[in-house]
Amino acid sequence: MTETLADFLDRLNHEIRLAGDWGSVADYIPELARVDPAQFGIAVALPDGRLLTAGDAETGFSIQSVSKVFSLAAVLGRIGEQLWLRVGREPSGDRFDSILLLEQEKGRPRNPFINAGALVVTDELLTGRTPRQALSELLGFIRAAAEDDAIHIDKAVARSEAETGHRNAALVHYLRSYGNLRNPPDHALGTYIHHCAIEMSCVQLARAGRFLAGLPDAPRMIAPRKVRRINALMMTCGQYDGSGNFAFRVGMPAKSGVGGGLLVIAPGKASIGIWSPGLDGWGNSLAGTLAAERLAEVTGWSVF
Ligand code: DON
User: Fold this and answer.
1) pLDDT of residue 233
2) Where does substrate bind (predicted)?
């Protein structure tokens, strides 16, 4: 490519703002409904240690389901293979908060990224720990991955989801009824809601994802074999029932959140944090997905 990556990111930022096609912010968590959709940021961490940014790359946002990547990494690091007795590794083809398959498949969620599966991962995180300890351990994991101690939980977002999160409350009790939840349902739910409420910027996200991209300056968080597996799950399940479309358009492992964040991994090449709060019909960032697609086109970073 003749244009430098830094110049491309600037152009992308301008083009996305000019198009003004933002989608709509999530409104089932009232605190997220207050966010202005007309925002976009991107940060790209590279193997040589450079971090390129454009747009609102330093603005903090609610990472929501992107946190599921880090809870999965922390749990896989701690217990490893046993997790798969409790949660599967197949895309669900259903919405992220669906309960349908949970009854059909007797309380074993399809994968660790749909809400039911992430609640099981959070339950594992709680083994031998209080909710407060589990949260501080997870926050410690993310801070260590990003080498940034400023990363924190937005309490207002957590409170907002706690007041309205009846579907997750249903899921957690459903899991318990099938014997696939060891801790009290309100502990698992409260811990989950709080880790979804972690606030990060694109810069912090790109830095936290370096270990998943295998970048040379990344702190070693978990074994490379586990990193490969997390990337496989991000590729197949990271965007829920929009995962096939995302793989088709972007071709890189990624995880989305309803706050409009995206962590995209180009194995060996880059860790990318993208944010634009407006969502598409699957609950994934509209402009963020477009940005990832354009980035993949110009860099050739699709794994296919
Ligand atoms: O459990 C929820 O509904 C939210 N805390 C997270 C969902 C989410 O981010 C789905 N992603 N696109």
Assistant:
1) 98
2) 65, 115, 161, 168, 192, 240, 258
- What's the whole-number mean pLDDT along residues 280-296? 96
SS3 254: strand
Report pTM.
0.98
CATH architecture of 5-64+199-299: 3-Layer(aba) Sandwich (3.40)
d(CA 143, CA 148): 5
CATH topology of domain 65-198: Beta-lactamase (3.40.710)
Residues with CB under 6 A from ligand 1: 64-65, 96-97, 115, 161, 168, 196, 256-258, 283-284
Distances (CA, A) of 58 to 61, 90, 204, 213, 263: 9, 34, 8, 21, 15
Q: How far is ligand 1, taken at its centre, from the CA of residue 65, in Å?
A: 5
If residue 49 lies in a helix (H) or strand (E), which one and from where to where? none
Two domains, one topology: 5-64+199-299 and 65-198:
yes
